[in-house]
Write a structure and sequence with these properties.
alpha+beta; Beta-Lactamase; 4-stranded antiparallel β-sheet; 6 helices
């Protein structure tokens, strides 16, 4: 790859990794892991959003380390969405940013994700970190619809903690 393309890809990747969807720094510290009760509340809000729109979704909530705290799958959700929802949540927690930031980097033509070899970075919307008191306490992941539907569902879950 020519040097100019390499530099452009690295700049795009760095921009995505330094900012969250809302523009806040991605270096938000990790906090005390999310409780099971809070994880259930997040999943319930995400499922309510999916039901309101007639989307069949799988919703996962993980702690800051990416370990599953709570999971729910709606009837008729494609089975492949089970693991994807968990991976989206894990990616959002471990990288402390929405998975849409990776999607946006790729959409901008950046090959930076492949070049940097970011194992576990899911480049599709639907993973949102849960930030409380300025700290990442976990993340929510949703899968079953389009990228935008997954993102909307996960965001509804994250918003339940506000």
């Amino acid at each position: 790859m020519p040097i100019k393309q390499t530099l452009v890809a690295l700049v795009l990747a760095a921009a995505a990794f330094g900012q969250t969807k809302a523009g806040a720094p991605a270096n938000v510290p990790y906090g005390t892991p999310i409780s099971t009760d809070s994880a259930k509340r997040i999943a319930a809000a995400a499922i309510a959003q999916a039901r309101k729109n007639n989307w069949a979704m799988a919703v996962a909530v993980v702690d800051p380390s990416g370990y599953l705290v709570y999971f729910e799958r709606m009837p008729d959700t494609q089975l492949g969405s089970v693991e994807i929802s968990i991976e989206k949540a894990k990616s959002a927690a471990l990288f402390r940013r929405p998975t849409k930031s990776f999607q946006d980097t790729l959409a901008a033509g950046g090959q930076g994700l492949r070049m940097l070899g970011l194992t576990g970075a899911v480049p599709v919307a639907g993973g949102i970190p849960i930030i409380v008191g300025g700290k990442v306490i976990g993340a929510v992941g949703a899968s079953g619809g389009t990228s935008d539907q997954d993102g909307s569902t996960a965001q509804a879950g994250a918003d339940a903690m506000k």
